[in-house]
Amino acid sequence: xxxxxxxxxxxxxxxxxxxxxxxxxxxxxxxxxxxxxxxxxxxxxxxxxxxxxxxxxxxxxxxxxxxxxxxxxxxxxxxxxxxxxxxxxxxxxxxxxxxxxxxxxxxxxxxxxxxxxxxxxxxxxxxxxxxxxxxxxxxxxxxxxxxxxxxxxx
Length: 154
Prior knowledge:
Layout: H1 4-20, H2 26-38, H3 42-60, H4 64-88, H5 93-108, E1 123-126, E2 141-144
Parallel strand pairs: 1-2
Helix pairs in contact: 1-4, 1-5, 2-3, 2-5, 3-4
């Protein structure tokens, strides 16, 4: 049985694999996972990279609830694969930690130009008479319009 710390690492790793699919670090993460799972066998490494690309392609055509469900399923599948790898080769734990940190760092980088706001996480906004416009949204955006003043709220 996998120790609790390695099981938690596998769970975080599975989530990071799916998250990496939408970052600039994807190619690096994919190659690193290929090496981890390949264990020196080029064919096995290539098969892992191919499996990762299929997973990414599957998610790329989905949106909304379907994307969320498929992403959760992919994260669970990679959690299981990583748990099996860590059970057989606990020495790769540092490589898994490095991969997770790499993905987290790539998602934490946000930039904004003049008259813009950039946030590395979920955002809740209240519109006070207008709408919300966004060029790119990665994550949840919740908008709540405050109640209109009525006779009893003036």
